[in-house]
Amino acid sequence: MVKIPQGFTPENWRVVITGVGLTCPLGNSLAEFRQGLLAGRSGIERYEIRYFGATLAGICRFDENKYQKAKDRRRGTRAGSIAIYCSQEAVRDARLDWRNVDKSRVGVYVGVTEHGNVETENEIYLLSQYNYDLQVWSHYHNPRTVANNPAGEVTLNMGITGPHYCLGAACAAGNVALIHGVQMLRLGEVDIALAGGVSESIHTFGIFASFRSEGALAWHEDPTKACRPFDRDRNGIVVSEGGCMFVLERLGDALRRGAFIYGEIVGYSLASDAHDYVLPLPERQAECIRAALQQAELEPSEIDIVSTHATGTLAGDALEAQALRSIWHSPGRTRFNNTKSFIGHAMGAAAALELAGNLPAFQDNICHPTINLDNLDPACELPGLVANYPEVLAEVRTILNLSFGMLGINSAVIVKKWEGK
Question: pLDDT-based confidence at 380, cuts 50/70/90?
Fold first, then answer.
């Protein structure tokens, strides 16, 4: 069990996951998502966006009217709609008595890569259709583009009066929000944390143009084969939208209300490369992983599943594999998989979705694979890499969720199976 600092009790230090709400290119619930992962089904499809033209993307199709009125959707953003849907579904999944929850003791922490690009591009395009007459500029633009928008929309929708904000952490944002939720619960700032990540990135042409200019945008005649982390023929990132929010509670509160516990967050780490705008540094990634293991008081050999970050870029995948091999030198119980191969890169939502996709392994003891891994790049070899087909394990008790981002931000979260002690 993780070491509890002096002055804290297990009840107010240990934090567990009691609810999951999500939307992704494979479905709009954890059950649908998991089914797709175990079936080896890709959620990538052809997509066309203004100015850029034809490309590939992961697209979410959820019922935006389930928790929102049409007027609120028009005033708000796609990221806000995703955050609201996921948060409402997470609360529902957690079976919280929401009417009687003290909303001032609920915190909303949403990880994002960026926010506001979609709305700004849309407004400028509209201006171009009216000879750049600023009178057509929307008076909703400011609340749509402020950095706290997705989290703020959740509070408006759900009547939450506790703290809310977004955490910008590039592709590590989902993990960062999860870690922040844990910290706020431990500090006693909130009693319930809604934490996770969202992304509306496919609705901005700029992200596709930028990745293409970097030579990092994936393409394949068969969209389902486009995202291929660790494969010799990988050629870049598939951009996706999506979201995943978790309900986090202190262990004592969860036990008192008889909640189902998906797992306990027993370790985490955040660190920076201080190296490059884009290229990661394997040594720093490895340091981040070791710090999380140390906090959880676990040896590398005690990790059952490592959810890798690999995005399908030539340099990034190889450098991450190098970092992992420096810790896991030889075959053992640890298995490595990758969720982006199914749904693409959901940016701010990536880490949260990837953790969610692996959480059911605590119940079914199955490690979902990395798909499209037809020709393993020797530079990406890992002991225990699960390729193309699920693997049934003797038992799954620990999951290490990795997520790294631009400007050298590294994150690692360790979740342990709840076994009633």
Answer: very high
